[in-house]
Amino acid sequence: MKIEITNKGTMHQMTMVNDIQGDMGEDTRLHLIQQPDGDVIICLSNTENYTRESIEFCSVSGGGRNPFIVRKLQEIIQYYATPTKEEE
């Protein structure tokens, strides 16, 4: 898993949690991306055939119909993006 934060501390900050591997060693990876406006994109990519599919959940400010899902996805992203004491 790789954490990438671009434009940190600015209004353009984007947080990405990339290459989350499943428990059974599949070729499929999960990617979570939080855009500056709070929208969250979930991507599934396959490392064997190089395909990628995604779905976007908009924040309330962007007209999102699923505020609970967006909020929980944002919490997951922030959990992974926050360094632990060992990492600091």
Describe the structure in brief.
By secondary structure, this protein is α+β, with helices and mostly antiparallel strands. The chain has one helix spanning 67-81, and strands spanning 2-6, 14-21, 28-34, 40-46, 51-57.
Describe this structure as you would to a colleague.
By secondary structure, the chain is of the alpha+beta class. The chain contains 1 helix and 5 strands, in the order βββββα. Strands 1-2-3-4-5 form a 5-stranded antiparallel beta sheet, covered by helices on one side. Strand 4 and strand 5 (51-57) form a beta hairpin. The longest helix is centred in the C-terminal third of the chain and has 15 residues, at 67-81. It is globular. The mean pLDDT is 89.
List the helices and strands and how they pair.
Layout: E1 2-6, E2 14-21, E3 28-34, E4 40-46, E5 51-57, H1 67-81
Antiparallel strand pairs: 1-2, 2-3, 3-4, 4-5
Short descriptors:
single chain, 88 residues, alpha+beta, 5-stranded antiparallel beta sheet, 1 helix, globular
- Tally the beta strands: 5
Averaged pLDDT: 89
Pairing-aware structural class of the strands and helices?
alpha+beta
Strand order of the largest sheet: 1-2-3-4-5
Percent of residues in β-strands: 35-45%
* Measured distance between first and last alpha carbons: 17 Å
Order of helices and strands: EEEEEH
> What proportion of the residues is helical, as a percent range?
10-25%
**Number of helices, counting only DSSP H or I runs of 4 residues or more:** 1
Radius of gyration: 14 Å
State the low-pLDDT regions, or none. none
What is the global morphology?
globular
Largest sheet: 5 strands, antiparallel
